[in-house]
Here is the input.
Amino acid sequence: MNTVRIILADDHTLFRKGLSELLEREGHIRVAAMTGDPSQVAALLREHTPDALILDLNLPPTDGITLMQELREQGFALPVLILTVSEADRDLARALRNGAKGYLLKSMEPDEVIDAVLRAVRGETVVAPTMTAKLVRLLDHREGGEQGHAELLATLTQREREILVHLSRGESNKAIARALDISYDTVKLHVRHILAKLNLTSRVEAAVFAVEQRLSPD
Here is the structure.
């Protein structure tokens, strides 16, 4: 795996430095630059051309979502992940509707943040595990109705249903592999099959589908 280069913008110095150390410890992520000043972000993006940008939601004198909008207007198109303590529906909705590829909570485990960054760089939309259920209230229902959803669900094997339950909790492939005592590559293969069978394009959509269907391990 190629090293993923990111820029981190957070106004809390200790948190910024601590997160930087945790991310780089994984081995596949390098923090190219970090700042607590939103006015420096555009210049840092031009200088370092990173693969992703992590923005604190609260970034005085502006906020992460407003800054993200301004960067889009300036032509920057890299994945942006919002990092916050806010679990408010409105903040999640505003972030995703304005093009954020991720909505992460500062209470997440380090490996969850690392996994989210790597997935966002691959093109997925990622949210904190505890925010998954909130997406049900924000996303439009897919076509086909409950009967169509039940028919799609019936195409899954028992193992795929088990993995879908774990996806609904926002768990990473590594976490799922540990929980089910199977290999990481096996989980990846099952996730691809799940998305194909349910006519979905991302893990987030799969998690929402599972929550909507009140899927249980049984």
